[in-house]
Amino acid sequence: MHADSLMTSPELWAKLVATKGVGLTETEQEQIVKELDCERARNLKAQQELHRKREKVNRGKEMMREREKKAKEDKMAAEMEERQQRRKEELKIWFEKKDIENRERLARERAQIRALQDAKRAKKERERERQELFDKEREIRLRRRRGRRVVHKSSPMTVLTLSGGVASAPVIGSDLEVRKDHHGLNVGKTEPLFPEGKRQIGPQSAGAVNSMLEEPRTQLDTEESSYLVPLPRRETARVKKLKKFFKSTEDAFAT
């Protein structure tokens, strides 16, 4: 500032410095004030220019920051959009997978239900067939039993039974007489009959019948072998039951 002023009027400025402002004329004072005003105006203009340049620079920086910020926001928005799109695709894939799993699970459950229903139907069918077979076999057994009863009623035979109704092999009346003499069995014609029309073997004859059943008979007379009826295989079990019953009855009366 002072250099420019000195270059404008160096003598005046030298005099101002030497006299320290004393002894200057009015014209010199006006000139100095004018030059000072010009200097102040130049400084103000320079400051304004500098401020303008700074504002321009700041504006440029601000615009750059705004552009960077906008670019960053755009980038973040694009990334968010991409993440959302990827999430939508993942959710879509997940829902499709779950839908497939649910359909497969429902198909398996339906198959299991159908299998259970088929198994139940098959079981009922087997039970029905088994029941039909059982009914047929029972009908056959009843027919055979009725046939045997008819044969027993029509034949002149006496059936030895227990009080429980378990029957032994049919025996002819003459066989009882012969066995009475041979084994000492006390069977009389005047013994009372049960409502079923069958004779009862009392406790007094239990030992005799038991001995009769247990006694080995390897040799039979010609006359005796002619009237004895052989026991079928099915009656063997009944004979064993008779032996066990007479044994228990004999023990009970002994005590």
Describe this entry's structure for a reader.
Residues 46-86 are annotated as: Disordered. Helix content is 75%, strand content 3%. It has 255 residues and is mostly helical. Among the domains are: 2-71; 156-254, no CATH class. α1 crosses α2 (10-19) and α5 packs across α7. The longest helix is centred in the middle third of the chain and has 129 residues, at 26-154.
Please render the helix and strand layout as text.
Layout: H1 2-8, H2 10-19, H3 26-154, E1 157-158, E2 160-161, E3 171-172, H4 173-183, E4 199-200, H5 206-214, H6 222-225, H7 233-254
Parallel strand pairs: 2-4
Antiparallel strand pairs: 1-3
Helix pairs in contact: 1-2, 5-7
Helix-strand category: mainly alpha
How many beta-strand elements? 4
Terminal residue distance? 158 Å
Spatial arrangement of strands, main beta sheet: 1-3
H/E element sequence: HHHEEEHEHHH
Uncertain regions: pLDDT < 50 for 5+ in a row? Answer: 1-7, 157-206, 215-227
Taking the sheet with the most strands, its summary is:
2 strands, antiparallel
Give me the number of helical elements: 7
Beta-strand share of residues: under 5%
Rg measurement, Å: 70 Å
Q: Name the helicity range.
A: over 70%
